[in-house]
Design a protein that fits this description.
Blueprint: H1 8-35, H2 39-44, H3 57-65, H4 68-99, H5 105-117, H6 124-133, H7 140-163, H8 169-176, H9 181-192, H10 194-209, H11 213-218, H12 227-232, H13 242-277
Helix pairs in contact: 1-13, 3-13, 4-5, 4-7, 4-10, 5-7, 7-10, 8-9, 10-13
Length: 278
């Protein structure tokens, strides 16, 4: 009978990977258990205690009474609009900079990339004044414009780096076959860059979905608040209902997890290709 050998190094490697996985998964499991406890149990028992019973009413309270469903819809609307607009703009700018030859293209790229080095906290006041004068304060349109502007530099940076790895012979062959620049762009370039686009989508979604500061400053109306800001309103001056807050946190985390599960393979492909060709 053949004997299987397990080197000590391999066992240690797998043990380390299991430990890292447990550390990564534990906060999510803890948050789900936290959301199923009553507020009294949260305050009276330990952090690692299990629920005395499953309080599914926390989710009903969060979605209906605390208006988490409305805040969720606002966040989805803002995120989808920001991702769509910023990705289209970033892809067009990146293609023009990386694949076309024209004067000042590097200067234009540097101007966009300067946005990465400017802290968003340093420009709150001018943006707030601009939104007031543009009549975009306290409107979802205004917050979408802000998020699009902040998302462009990172998106352009990622897409330019990926586009520069593609051989120019692809476009030359398409031109010889009679394809126009638009046909080449939509039929050849965009499908090849889809892993990088998926990376940009995830980065943009995470930044927009979890953003709090500008939403807190720009959105005063309760009807149009985003999810991160709406969960804050569940905490009152005299009492905090921790169970529904935990349910709101679980609800706010699910879209991020689902999005990553759907596009994680493309993100990994983008990073691997970039590493090999870079």
């Amino acid at each position: 009978m053949k004997r299987t050998n397990f080197p000590l190094g391999r066992i240690a490697k797998y043990a380390l990977l299991v430990l890292i996985a447990l550390v990564q998964v534990f906060p999510l499991v803890w948050m789900i258990l936290f959301s199923l406890k009553s507020s009294m149990q949260v305050l009276s028992t330990g952090v690692f205690s299990l629920p005395d019973r499953l309080h599914w009413e926390n989710y009903a309270f969060a979605l209906r009474t605390a208006h988490v469903a409305r805040y969720l819809a606002n966040s989805v609307l803002v995120s989808v609009c920001t991702i769509a607009i910023s990705t289209i703009l970033a892809m067009n700018v990146a293609y023009a900079v990386a694949r076309m030859r024209w004067r000042f293209r590097q200067a234009v790229l540097n101007a966009f990339l300067l946005g990465i080095m400017i802290p968003t906290q340093a420009i709150i006041l001018p943006i707030y004044i601009l939104m007031l004068r543009s009549h975009l304060h306290n409107k979802l349109t205004g917050i979408i414009v802000i998020y699009v502007v902040f998302s462009l530099p990172t998106g352009i940076y990622v897409l330019v780096g990926y586009l520069r790895t593609l051989p120019r012979e692809l476009e030359e062959a398409a031109t010889v076959d009679g394809a126009s620049i638009y046909r080449t762009y939509f039929s050849i370039i965009v499908p090849l860059v889809s892993p990088a686009i998926a990376t940009v989508v995830i980065f943009t979604f995470l930044a927009v979905w979890n953003e709090f500061m500008y939403a807190y400053i720009m959105l005063d109306n309760l009807e149009i608040r985003t999810l991160t800001l709406g969960i804050l309103t569940m905490r009152t001056k005299y009492w905090t209902d921790w169970g529904p807050i935990g349910a709101g946190l679980v609800i706010s985390s699910m879209p991020t997890i689902l999005l990553y599960l759907f596009v994680s393979s493309k993100v990994q492909k983008s990073l691997i290709v970039g590493a090999i060709k870079g």
